[in-house]
Amino acid sequence: MRSLPPHPGLRLSGSAAAAATAAVALAAAGLLASAAPATAGAAPAPAASVAADDGSPDRSFTIKDPRITESSGLAASRAHPGIYWTHNDSDDGPYVYAVDSRTGKTVATISLRGIGEPRDVEGISVGSDGNVYVGDIGDNLGGSWDHVWIYRFPEPEQLKDATVRATQFTVQYADGPRNAEALMVHPTTGRVYIASKVEGGGGLYEGPATLTSSGTNVFRRIGEVPWVTDGAFSPDGKELVLRSYFSARAYVWKDGRLGADHAVRAPFQGQAESVTYTADGKALMFGSEGKESGVVRVDLDKDSGGNLPSGNGSSSSGGSGSSSDGGGPQGNATLGAVVLAGVAALVFGVKRLRRKD
């Protein structure tokens, strides 16, 4: 296993990196407010769902475990209502955490054995086969690892600290190495997909029908997607949601391919990293990184405009906007897209420097 080489350029201490990230987040919020066009009928920015303090699951919550400071993936449990699986980004070890959305507390820590040392864990998904899939698919060097890994372990019947044997799968991309942060398992076919993360837009990659632990699993590009930090299939398998730092889009999923897409409401988060559907498919849960990071529930109500049609509201972060030489709505929208791209680059740069420090 290779470790990351020391970064030859600027180095940020943990506190400086955190301050820089916070500054970027505040700047983004201000720039978004000034650049966003006043479009009639546009949906307001979503807020955390308000739920009575009655112990109901699948509500917005704060991750309270001090060990979880870089929650980079999120997956709703199939076996335990209201429980969400998450993990740290890197430098944490082979650990996966079960967090209760009712309290924000960790109710089980799963230690994986039978695998190598995790390198850059970025995604997690629960399959219909009762297994949890963990994607060690990140690449801090922008796509230089010649292979990455997926780990799989059975979702435990009881929520308690445990050490479990996991299966390790070696993954390569048919068109060469790349960075990725989104791993999705289709809920009916069980097929695994990965979305790469590239500034100008990435690709959606399809794994073999059945993963093998005795050889290399080649993932092949089947579609084009925007900048992606995470993704998730709906529980019925008919829709795929992909999120970026500032927006999210839902794609119709039919016959194993991407279909028509539309914007989905997404909260603004300082380090937007993860997304998953609730187990009942009625809402999306958006997660972020950082100490005591928040997970925000956004209800999906297609009949009342909870999902915005394409072109009305936020656009995909990797798409191209309309151009205009003057002011007005199109000019403001273009300015907003430029601002978002710039802030995304700043966030990405700060995050890379922080990891390499």
Task: Describe the structure in your own words.
It is a single chain. Helix 1 runs antiparallel to helix 2. The model is unreliable at 1-53, 308-348 and 352-357 (pLDDT under 50). The protein starts with 13 loop residues before the first helix and ends with a helix. It has two helices and 21 strands. The longest helix is centred in the C-terminal third of the chain and has 29 residues, at 328-356. It has helices at 14-35, 328-356, and strands at 61-62, 73-76, 83-87, 95-100, 106-113, 123-126, 131-136, 148-154, 162-165, 167-173, 180-185, 192-196, 202-206, 216-225, 230-233, 239-243, 248-254, 257-264, 272-277, 283-288, 294-299. It is an alpha+beta fold and 357 residues long.
Task: Please give the share of residues in helix.
Answer: 10-25%
- Structural class comes to alpha+beta
Biggest sheet architecture: 8 strands, mixed
What is the radius of gyration?
19 Å
> Strands of the biggest beta sheet: in what spatial order?
6-7-8-10-14-13-12-11
Poorly predicted runs are 1-53, 308-348, 352-357
Strand content: 25-35%
Helix/strand order: HEEEEEEEEEEEEEEEEEEEEEH
**E-strand count:** 21
Looking at the structure, what is the overall shape? globular
For the record, give the distance between the C-alpha atoms at the N and C termini, rounded to a whole number: 19 Å
Give average pLDDT, whole number: 78
Number of helices in the DSSP assignment: 2
